[in-house]
C-alpha cells in the first residue's frame, strides 16, 4: 500500500496527481466560500464549459508532447464552426456532410502545419501563426464578415440536441468528452504510435536513429490537433446555435494553460491527457468562482494570471541546471 | 559587416515589400508617394519597431515574451488616463508608463530566471495580470494628448519620428557591443557553456525581459502619440506582430543568432504590407490571409537561402 502511494507521488504520474489536486482545491474553495458552487447543477455546467477547453487541450497536448505548439487553433475552430453552419444550412439531412466538411477543414490545416514543420523545417510557432492568419483571412473573406446569406443559419437541430441534450441525466456533451479522453489515452499509452510520440518528444534524434518516422509522426499529430480544434468549433456552435467572429480567440491561451496546468511538460515528452482534463476543469472553476464572487473584469484577469503562476510554481518548474 | 549579414533576411524582405509598395502606389495614384506618405508610414510603424526590438532581445536569449501585449496596453492606459493635463504632466505620465513597462518586464525576468518557469508560460500568465491592470487604470477607451507633446514625438508634418528611430537603432548598436550585449548572445547560443565561463545568466535574463518591458512602455508612448487616444486593449495585436517582425527579421528562434536591426526592418515590412494590400485593392477582410502567407513565405525563403549556402560550402 505504502509502495503504491509512493509510486503515485514520485512516479511518472506525479504531475497528473498534482493537476487533480489543483482542480480539487479550487472546487473545494469554491464550495466553501460560495454556497451552491459545489451543487450538481453548477458542476454540470462547469464540466460542459470545460469540455470545449478539453477538446482544444487534447490537440494542443498532442503537439506539445513532441515539443511543438499549435497557434492556429483560434481560427481553425472559428472556421470549422462557420463551415458547419454554412454547409448544413440548419437542415438535419445535410448534417453528416457538414460535420465531415468541418472536421476535414481542421485536418487540412493540420496537414499544412505538419508538412511545414516536419518537412520544410519552419518553426512551429511561425508555421501555425501564419496558418492562423490564413484561416482568419479565409473565414472573414469567404463569409464576408459573417454577412453572407447562408451565414445566418443555425446549427441543425440533431446536433444541438446531441450537445445540449442528456442521456440518463448526463449531458451527452460530457459523454463525447469521455470518448475523446478514452481515444487520446488509448492512442498514447497502448499503441505503438503513442510510444513513438513520447520517443520523439524526449529525443527526436535518438528516436530517428531507432527507426521512428519522426516526420510522419509529427504530421499525424498536427492533423489530429486540427481535427480536435474543429471538433471544439462544431460543439461550440451547436451549444451557442450560431457562430460568431472571434469565437475561438479565448481558446488559444486556454488550450496552452490547460495543457501546462495539467502537468504536461512544455518541452515535450512528458504528460497524460488525464492531467489536461483536470487542467480544463481547474481553469473553468477559477473563472466561474471569480464571476460568482462578482469580481470586476480587471480583477478576474489579474487573479486568473496569478493563480496560473502559483500552480506553475508548485509543479511546473524546470529542473535546475546545476 | 556581421551586423549586416545577420539582418540580411529582414532587409531583403523589406526591400521586396518597399518595391511592391512603390509599384502599387504609383499605378493606383499616378505619382510617387509624397513625403507625407513616408512620414505617416514612419509614425505608424514606430510602436511596432520598439516592441520588436524588445522582443528581439528576449528571443536572442532563447526566450519569448507574450506579455508585451499587456505591457503595451498598461502603458497606453497610463498615458491616456494621465494626459488630461498640460504638456509637463503628460510627459511625467509618459515616463511613468515607461517605468511601469520596465518594472513589469523585470518581474517576468525574475520569474523566468529565478523561478525556472518556461518563458512562454511565465509571460502567458503575466499577460493576463498586466492586461487586467490596464483595464483597472483605463476602464473605457479615451484620453487625449496635448499637441505640444505630439509635435516632439510624432509630428504629422515634420519628421521628428526619424530622430527617435535613429536613437533606437543607435541604442541597439551600442548595446550590441557592450559586455551585456555579448552576454545576451552567449546565453542564447549555449546557456550551460555561458554559465560555465562565468556569465551571470540569471542577471542577463532579468536584463533582457526588463528591456523588453521598457521597449513596450516606449511603444505605448508612441502609440498614444500617433493615435491621439488610448484603449486598454491596444497592446493585443503587438503579441503576434512583434513575433512576426522578429521572425521576418531573420532572428533564430533557438536564440543566439540574429540582429534587432533585422526585426526593425521586419516591423517596417509588416506595416508596408498592409498598405500594399490596400493599394492593390484587396478586400480588407482578406488582410490576415496575406499577412499569414507573407510570414510563412518569408521564413521559407530564409531557410532556403541558408540551405543553398550550406550546400555550397
Question: Can you describe this structure?
Answer:
The complex is a heterodimer of chains A (322) and B (313). Chain A has 322 residues and is mainly alpha-helical. Helix content of chain A is 73%, strand content 1%. Chain A has 14 helices and two strands. Chain A has helices spanning 2-10, 14-33, 40-64, 73-88, 95-118, 124-142, 157-164, 172-190, 192-202, 204-209, 214-240, 250-261, 273-292, 297-315; strands at 166-167, 170-171. Chain A has a two-stranded antiparallel sheet with strand order 1-2. The longest helix of chain A is centred in the last third of the chain and has 27 residues, at 214-240. The radius of gyration of chain A is 20 Å and the shape is globular. The model of chain A has no long low-confidence stretch (mean pLDDT 86). The longest helix of chain B is centred in the N-terminal third of the chain and has 27 residues, at 87-113. Chain B has 14 helices and no strands. The model of chain B has no long low-confidence stretch (mean pLDDT 86). By secondary structure, chain B is mostly helical. Helices cover 77% and strands 0% of the residues of chain B. Chains A and B meet through helix 6, helix 12 and helix 14 of A and helix 6, helix 10, helix 12 and helix 14 of B.
Give the end-to-end Cα distance of chain B, rounded to a whole number of Å.
Answer: 20 Å
Query: What string, H for helix and E for strand, traces the elements of chain B in order?
Result: HHHHHHHHHHHHHH
H and E string of chain A = HHHHHHHEEHHHHHHH
Shape of chain A from CA axes?
Answer: globular
Amino acid at each position: 500500500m505504502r509502495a503504491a502511494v509512493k509510486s503515485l507521488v514520485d512516479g511518472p504520474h506525479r504531475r497528473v496527481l498534482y493537476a487533480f489536486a489543483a482542480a480539487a482545491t479550487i472546487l473545494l474553495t469554491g464550495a466553501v466560500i460560495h454556497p451552491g458552487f459545489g451543487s450538481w447543477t453548477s458542476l454540470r455546467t462547469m464540466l460542459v464549459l470545460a469540455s470545449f477547453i478539453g477538446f482544444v487541450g487534447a490537440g494542443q497536448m498532442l503537439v506539445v508532447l513532441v515539443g511543438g505548439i499549435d497557434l492556429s487553433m483560434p481560427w481553425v475552430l472559428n472556421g470549422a464552426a462557420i463551415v458547419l453552419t454554412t454547409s448544413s444550412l440548419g437542415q438535419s439531412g445535410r448534417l453528416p456532410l457538414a460535420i465531415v466538411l468541418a472536421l476535414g477543414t481542421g485536418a487540412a490545416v493540420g496537414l499544412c502545419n505538419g508538412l511545414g514543420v516536419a518537412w520544410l523545417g519552419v518553426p512551429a510557432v511561425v508555421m501555425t501563426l501564419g496558418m492562423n492568419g490564413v484561416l482568419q483571412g479565409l473565414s472573414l473573406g469567404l463569409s464576408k464578415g459573417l454577412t453572407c446569406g447562408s451565414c445566418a443559419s443555425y446549427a441543425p437541430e440533431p446536433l444541438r440536441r446531441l450537445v445540449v441534450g442528456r442521456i440518463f441525466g448526463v449531458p451527452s456533451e460530457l459523454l463525447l468528452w469521455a470518448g475523446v479522453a478514452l481515444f487520446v489515452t488509448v492512442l498514447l499509452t497502448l499503441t505503438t504510435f503513442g510510444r513513438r510520440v513520447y520517443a520523439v518528444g524526449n529525443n527526436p534524434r535518438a528516436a530517428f536513429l531507432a527507426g521512428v518516422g519522426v516526420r510522419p509522426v509529427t504530421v499525424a499529430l498536427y492533423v489530429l490537433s486540427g481535427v480536435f480544434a474543429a471538433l471544439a468549433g462544431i460543439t461550440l456552435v451547436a451549444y451557442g446555435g450560431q457562430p460568431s467572429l472571434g469565437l475561438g480567440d479565448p481558446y488559444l491561451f486556454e488550450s496552452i494553460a490547460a495543457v501546462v496546468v495539467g502537468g504536461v511538460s512544455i518541452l515535450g515528452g512528458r504528460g497524460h491527457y488525464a492531467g489536461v482534463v483536470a487542467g480544463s476543469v481547474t481553469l473553468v472553476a477559477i473563472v466561474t468562482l471569480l464571476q460568482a464572487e462578482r469580481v470586476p473584469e480587471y480583477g478576474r484577469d489579474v487573479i486568473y494570471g496569478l493563480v496560473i503562476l502559483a500552480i506553475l510554481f508548485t509543479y511546473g518548474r524546470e529542473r535546475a541546471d546545476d | 559587416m556581421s551586423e549586416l549579414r545577420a539582418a540580411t533576411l529582414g532587409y531583403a524582405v523589406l526591400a521586396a515589400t518597399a518595391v511592391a509598395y512603390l509599384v502599387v502606389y504609383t499605378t493606383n495614384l499616378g505619382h510617387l508617394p509624397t513625403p507625407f506618405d513616408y512620414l505617416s508610414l514612419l509614425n505608424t510603424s514606430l510602436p511596432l519597431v520598439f516592441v520588436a526590438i524588445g522582443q528581439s532581445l528576449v528571443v536572442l536569449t532563447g526566450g519569448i515574451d507574450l506579455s508585451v501585449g499587456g505591457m503595451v496596453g498598461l502603458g497606453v492606459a497610463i498615458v491616456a488616463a494621465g494626459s488630461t493635463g498640460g504638456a509637463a504632466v503628460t510627459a511625467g505620465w509618459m515616463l511613468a508608463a515607461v517605468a511601469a513597462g520596465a518594472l513589469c518586464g523585470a518581474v517576468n525576468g525574475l520569474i523566468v530566471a529565478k523561478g525556472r518557469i518556461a518563458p512562454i508560460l511565465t509571460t502567458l500568465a503575466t499577460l493576463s495580470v498586466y492586461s487586467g491592470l490596464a483595464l483597472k487604470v483605463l476602464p473605457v477607451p479615451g484620453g487625449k494628448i496635448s499637441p505640444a507633446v505630439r509635435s516632439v514625438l510624432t509630428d504629422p508634418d515634420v519628421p521628428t519620428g526619424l530622430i527617435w528611430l535613429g536613437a533606437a537603432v543607435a541604442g541597439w548598436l551600442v548595446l550590441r557591443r557592450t559586455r551585456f550585449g555579448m552576454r545576451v548572445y552567449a546565453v542564447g547560443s549555449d546557456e550551460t557553456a555561458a554559465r560555465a565561463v562565468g556569465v551571470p545568466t540569471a542577471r542577463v535574463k532579468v536584463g533582457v525581459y526588463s528591456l523588453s518591458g521598457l521597449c513596450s512602455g516606449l511603444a505605448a508612448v508612441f502609440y498614444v502619440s500617433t493615435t491621439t487616444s488610448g484603449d486598454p486593449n491596444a497592446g493585443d495585436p503587438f503579441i503576434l506582430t512583434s513575433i512576426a517582425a522578429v521572425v521576418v527579421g531573420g532572428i533564430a528562434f533557438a536564440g543566439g543568432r540574429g540582429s534587432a536591426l533585422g526585426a526593425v526592418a521586419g516591423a517596417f515590412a509588416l506595416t508596408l504590407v498592409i498598405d500594399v494590400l490596400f493599394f492593390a485593392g484587396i478586400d480588407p477582410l482578406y488582410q490576415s490571409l496575406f499577412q499569414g502567407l507573407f510570414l510563412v513565405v518569408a521564413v521559407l525563403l530564409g531557410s532556403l537561402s541558408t540551405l543553398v549556402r550550406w550546400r555550397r560550402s
